[in-house]
Structures are given as structure tokens and as C-alpha cells.
Design brief:
CATH architecture of the largest domain: Orthogonal Bundle
Strand content: under 5%
Distance between the termini: 47 Å
CATH superfamily of the largest domain: Tetracycline Repressor, domain 2
Radius of gyration: 20 Å
Structural class: mainly alpha
CATH topology of the largest domain: Tetracycline Repressor, domain 2
Number of strands: 0
Order of helices and strands: HHHHHHHHHHHH
Length: 205
């Protein structure tokens, strides 16, 4: 993570560096991204960069941590807001918020999509370590199985993987066409197919 020297900078300078990182990592995978381009866009010297960050990995981790903070703030009033919600309701509500978020900050979505294109060891470790969300939704599926909403024979891990696969490629064309309303409708349609295939008869809508 950044050094104290970085945090001692004026807020406007920190933002300038952050924005330069966003620009570079939204255009290129981590492996292809250039420290030189970040330095140039942020108008800092190479020496200053290494006073702020240990290396490119450190810089990237800082960027992701700031994005996660924003994301958690955005989702705080969605998770667990209604005790009658199913895992599908929570997922759709979170995704609806995420769509509004990427509509305002599309470069964040591009950074995420670039992670899926990078096969470097560093990114593979990051993706493997990102299990908290998967575990959370698997626990919601188990909860709904106990409530008699989702069929008992459904594997919570497989259903979770199906839900998260929607995030990957199915919606990318809508993003690049800036069709966010189409993205929401497409997501809802996919969710309805998964919902009807995994819920008990009495819980079909």
C-alpha cells in the first residue's frame, strides 16, 4: 500500500495520481500497464513514484482498495435490508446499484474486465483470494434452502458460480454500447431463468 509520503501529499495531488492509475489500468491489463504512462499522466517523476509505491503491484493494490471502499459504501444499504429477500433479490439489487455505479464510472468496470484478460501470477492470486463475495452468496443460498425457497439438491457453490458468471461476458456488449437499461433487462432475464430452474415449485414467480 502507499507510503506515508503519499498520504502526506495534498488531496488534489493524490487524486491526480489516482486518476492516472485509473486511466492506465482501464486501458491495459495489469501486465501491459506502464508505470511510465502513469508517471507522465500524473506529472510526477519516476523517483517520486517509488517514494509513493513499492512497485506496480503496490500501485495496483492501492487502486483496487479505493474502488472497493466506494463499492462497499454503495452496497451498505442493500445487503440484508429486507429479511424476506431471497438471494436472487439481493443479487439483483446489488447489480442494479453496480450498473448505476459503472454508468457514472465506466473505467472501474473496464479495470475489472481487464483482470479477466490477464493470466499473470499476480492477478491469478488476486482472483483466487477474492472469495468473500462467493462465500457470502453461497451462505445466502444455504439460507434459502433452509427456508424451502431453493431446492435442497442444488449445490450452493455451483449456483453461486452461475450468478457470478453473469458479471463476466454476458453483459459486456451492453456496457460498450452504453446501453445500461438493456444491461439491467438482460440481467433480469438471466436471473429469472436461473431462479425458475433452482427454486421449489411453490416459489416460482
Amino acid at each position: 500500500m502507499p507510503t506515508n509520503t503519499f498520504y502526506n501529499l495534498e488531496e488534489s495531488k493524490r487524486k491526480q495520481i489516482f486518476d492516472a492509475c485509473v486511466d492506465e489500468f482501464s486501458l491495459h491489463t495489469f501486465s501491459e500497464a506502464s508505470i511510465n504512462q502513469i508517471i507522465k499522466a500524473a506529472n510526477i517523476s519516476r523517483g517520486s513514484f517509488y517514494q509513493y509505491f513499492a512497485d506496480k503491484e503496490d500501485c495496483y493494490m492501492y487502486l483496487l482498495s479505493e474502488m472497493v471502499k466506494e463499492k462497499m459504501e454503495m452496497f451498505k444499504d442493500v445487503v440484508g435490508s429486507n429479511e424476506n429477500d431471497t438471494v436472487f433479490d439481493e443479487y439483483e439489487a446489488m447489480f442494479d446499484k453496480a450498473i448505476r455505479w459503472i454508468e457514472v464510472k465506466p473505467k472501474y468496470y473496464q479495470i475489472g474486465s481487464k483482470m479477466d484478460m490477464d493470466n499473470s501470477e499476480f492477478i491469478r492470486k488476486l482472483l483466487k483470494g477474492n472469495l468473500a463475495s462467493l462465500d457470502y452468496f453461497a451462505s445466502l443460498i444455504r439460507r434459502d434452502q433452509q427456508r424451502g425457497i431453493i431446492r435442497k439438491e442444488i449445490d450452493p457453490v455451483i449456483l453461486t458460480e452461475m450468478l457470478f458468471s453473469i458479471n463476466q461476458k454476458a453483459l459486456m456488449n451492453f456496457f460498450y454500447n452504453r446501453d445500461f437499461e438493456g444491461m439491467k433487462k438482460h440481467l433480469h432475464h438471466i436471473l429469472e431463468i436461473i431462479r425458475k430452474g433452482s427454486t421449489t415449485e411453490e416459489n416460482h414467480v
